[in-house]
Amino acid sequence: MRVFFYGTLLDTDIRRAVLQDLCDSLTMTPAELPSFRRVTARDSDYPVLVPCPSGRVKGYLADGLDLQGLARAAYFEGAKYHPVQRAVRDSSGQWETAWLFLPVTPRHHANRTRWSLLRWQRQRKRRVLSMTKRWMAEFGARSLVGSDLSWQGRRTLRRLEQDRALAAHSHKGGFSRNTTRGRAAA
């Protein structure tokens, strides 16, 4: 599956701490998310996306993440973020549907300061990388019902798991159904 990274997961070391060996199987390509802007969180120095009709956020489209990788990313993002699908434009100009983590209440914990990956890497990366390694060492969800994920993350990942099972069943001659119900359409 495809995931759009726009913040601290753009950093290779943070991405490896979160996704571990899954990083080796990802294909990373530049991409853009329309109608949002990236600002700094009010209570820290991590990015928050807020709706902005004329905005564009540059990031990377990571292709090849599995459900376990998405669960690890959801754990890293925490309860203030939930996974949604949105359309992003890849480096060749093609539109792709990708998962990304949006704030549950974007304007509530965002300020107006533009977030910069380079500034974050210079000022915060070392401390955040150390904390991330400790935090991710505690990740132990063996299933999607573990308490490691927020309820929004568990609900979305369960739905994705069910949709994949239904799709696999329909390819084997079973029934099919529309699996886009309830999703944020791109």
Describe the protein in words.
- By secondary structure, this protein is α+β, with helices and mostly antiparallel strands.
- Helix content is 32%, strand content 32%.
- The protein has 5 helices and 6 strands.
- Strands 1, 2, 3, 4, 5 and 6 form a 6-stranded antiparallel β-sheet that branches.
- Mean pLDDT is 81; it is low at 141-145 and 174-186.
Features:
six-stranded antiparallel beta sheet; about 190 residues; single chain; alpha+beta; 5 helices
Number of strands: 6
Characterize the main sheet: 6 strands, antiparallel
> What's the shape?
globular
Amount of beta strand: 25-35%
**In angstroms, what is the radius of gyration?**
17 Å
Total DSSP helices: 5
Mean pLDDT: 81
Quote the distance from N terminus to C terminus.
15 Å
- Weakly predicted, low-confidence segments: 141-145, 174-186
Broad structural category: alpha+beta
Order of helices and strands: EHEEHEEEHHH
Helix content: 25-40%
Give a topology summary.
Blueprint: E1 2-5, H1 12-19, E2 27-41, E3 47-63, H2 67-77, E4 81-90, E5 95-103, E6 110-114, H3 117-123, H4 125-137, H5 151-171
Helix pairs in contact: 1-4, 2-5
In short:
This protein is of the alpha+beta class. Helices cover 32% and strands 32% of the residues.
